[in-house]
């Protein structure tokens, strides 16, 4: 346990921040480079628990990966689609749901069997969403089923995978999930025929972009993707933009803190990820997005747009967020709830159900924490043919410090640090150690910027 005490910060928040690499793109850089021929240098690679779980997993599958924390880079030396070797013992993916789900797609088409295991927290993350399409492709995967009596029992890790010859499928995605989509696409690299995927709402498209960069036979048109068995060739360098999901905490803090002026450099603004920027703009925030270019090769082809984002303090007003806008900001919803709690008027966030299956149930974690701090935030549901869950927030003038919990969830923890810095009085967070999952530099950055207002220590 690593508790933290946060006090209201009074001086203006002025900073220029170079944040670490995007978590989703860092995972994909290792996945796709590990299946390609040649050496790939992933620059601005994220060194966090989750992305390192992916590095460890591919090392266990025989890929040579040399990391350099100081230079924030990882060199991946791989031998192509059939270059992986049978791992000795289980592949342990720590708490990383992305590693487990995406790896399932890769391992389903190998010529060997493998066992995917994770930390206790991961054993309650649902896996059926990937197992259904992968089994349609011919995958043989055994899971742990907890509720045997249910008609559609949910399935959980550990996952025992017996590699098979796979066949292409046509699949309509029931939920907007980049993890499910990516698992299918990785399996499709090994499958006979052309796999077709149709999304109902677009989820992040980093896998599609990076697969294209590595020469995969992939075509996208609107919500449709088709992908065929293809050999991947390393482009040499992959530049990873800084993570918009990490920038989000500083964007909200700067928007709501008097006289702030913060510049966030080289942030990924992929259209499937920039939802928070657009919502904050609609809320009246003073945000300036200046498109930027990274130096050197790889960037242009990686086609991940980046920008410098400048945020200055300005009072916000409540807005309504539609279900279709949720995938573009799914990981930013906890900190958006903090922003809405201090915005004038009412904010409605529709389509929030997917928040229940993240590292914790983020509806519960954020509603209960923010209520303790005096926010007017409520979970609501409309029953009909399909139950629609939404969150209603009426802004208050001030949050007040309280004892809150991270629930072991990195994004709840960081959102509560932001809430604590804005709130009157002192906020006590039971455990911020979980932040290392995605953003180990977060607490050092806030301590540096906010000095003695932030106190935390390791056990
Ligand atoms: C991720 C996709 C999202 C997101 C998660 C990372 C990815 O999950 O919430 O943090 O890297 O593909 P879903 O695919 O389940 O929506």
Distance between the termini: 6 Å
Q: By helix and strand content, what is the structural category?
A: alpha/beta
Count of discrete structural domains:
2
CATH class identity of the largest domain: Alpha Beta
Q: Average pLDDT, to the nearest integer?
A: 95
Specify the CATH homologous superfamily of the largest domain: Enolpyruvate transferase domain
Count helical runs: 13
What low-confidence regions span 5 or more consecutive residues with pLDDT below 50? 297-301
Q: What is the level-2 CATH architecture name of the largest domain?
A: Alpha-beta prism
InterPro entries: Enolpyruvate_Tfrase_dom (IPR001986), Enolpyruvate_Tfrase_sf (IPR036968), EPSP_synthase (IPR006264), EPSP_synthase_CS (IPR023193), RNA3'P_cycl/enolpyr_Trfase_a/b (IPR013792)
Pathway: Metabolic intermediate biosynthesis; chorismate biosynthesis; chorismate from D-erythrose 4-phosphate and phosphoenolpyruvate: step 6/7
GO molecular function: 3-phosphoshikimate 1-carboxyvinyltransferase activity
Pfam families: EPSP_synthase
Give a summary of the structure in a few sentences.
The protein is an alpha/beta fold and 459 residues long. It is built from 13 helices and 25 strands.
Describe the protein in words:
Belongs to the EPSP synthase family. It catalyses: 3-phosphoshikimate + phosphoenolpyruvate = 5-O-(1-carboxyvinyl)-3-phosphoshikimate + phosphate. Pathway: Metabolic intermediate biosynthesis; chorismate biosynthesis; chorismate from D-erythrose 4-phosphate and phosphoenolpyruvate: step 6/7. Its main location: cytoplasm. This is 3-phosphoshikimate 1-carboxyvinyltransferase. The protein has about 450 residues and is an alpha/beta fold. The protein folds into 2 domains: about 5-20 and about 240-455, UDP-n-acetylglucosamine1-carboxyvinyl-transferase, Chain; about 25-240, UDP-n-acetylglucosamine1-carboxyvinyl-transferase, Chain (Alpha-beta prism), CATH 3.65.10.10. The chain is built from 13 helices and 25 strands. Strands 3, 4, 5, 14 and 15 form a 5-stranded mixed beta sheet that branches. A 4-stranded mixed beta sheet has the order 23-24-1-25. Helix 5 (about 180-190) links the parallel strand 10 and strand 11 (about 195-200). The chain starts with a strand and ends with a strand. The relative contact order is 0.14. Residues about 295-300 have low confidence and may be disordered. Bound molecules: shikimate-3-phosphate (S3P). The site of shikimate-3-phosphate has 12 residues, from helix 1 and helix 5. Shikimate-3-phosphate (S3P) binds near residues 98 and 204.
